[in-house]
């Protein structure tokens, strides 16, 4: 069976919040399938963005998959609220919650898909014991907090490691990568076996967002067929 096309998840972090509904509409129109929502608390990361109300208000503006990335400490305290806001995936950082297994189960019990994220300094082994209960693993390819940073090459081997573990153990998670993905780096992450990519700056600064999405999917196809 042919592999599904690369999933593109534009991150609204790089959009103009004063025109957020229009910006999200351009994601729909671009052919991207997911909307990536970066929630930051000023503690886990040195930046603050938005909370569940923002996501709830956006929900009627788009039929796409809402991929909520919680960069907050003790995310278990807010899982229910983010589930009620209409998130499809809720991804928490392994570094931000002590009882990671319980937090992931909580996400699923709220009816959402559960994701686990790791920062560049966290090895895959730190999340090995939860890989059987996650729907997504988000590999941070930059230190979280800001858009527009450069991909850290040492993070790439973690993508391959996760792809290999999935194959060996029969796990079902999607692999998603976040940070510094653009037309120059997409082939590197696809070669390692990613299923999805988050794009902030590259998507929102593209001259034509639809052509950008088409090009990224095409570059991924080329790399997979190589
Ligand atoms: C970074 C966020 C990313 C960010 C990516 O902390 O998690 O989702 O928006 O932005 P780019 O694609 O510009 O690196
Ligand atoms: Zn993110």
What brief labels describe this structure?
single chain, 226 residues, alpha/beta, TIM Barrel, eight-stranded parallel sheet, binds D-xylitol-5-phosphate, binds zinc ion
How would you sum up this structure, described in words?
The mean pLDDT is 98. This protein has an eight-stranded parallel beta sheet with strand order 1-8-7-6-5-4-3-2. The chain starts with 6 loop residues before the first strand and ends with a helix. It has 226 residues and is an alpha/beta fold. The relative contact order is 0.16. It is built from eight helices and eight strands. It has one domain: Alpha-Beta Barrel (TIM Barrel), CATH 3.20.20. Bound molecules: D-xylitol-5-phosphate and zinc ion. Zinc ion (ZN) is lined by residues 11, 36, 38, 69, 178, 198.
Summarize the structure.
The protein is α/β, with parallel strands linked by helices. The chain contains eight helices and eight strands.
List low-confidence stretches.
none
Give average pLDDT, whole number: 98
- Assign the CATH superfamily: Aldolase class I
Radius of gyration: 16 Å
Number of helices: 8
* Helix and strand composition category: alpha/beta
Bound molecules: D-xylitol-5-phosphate, zinc ion
| Domain unit count | 1
Main beta sheet: 8 strands, parallel
| Quaternary structure of the protein | single chain
What is the overall silhouette?
Answer: globular
Task: Give a count of the beta strands, DSSP E runs of length 2 or more.
Answer: 8
What would you say the CATH architecture is? Alpha-Beta Barrel
* Helix fraction by DSSP (H/I, runs of at least 4): 25-40%
Strand content: 15-25%
User: How far apart, in Å, are the first and last alpha carbons?
Assistant: 17 Å
CATH class: Alpha Beta
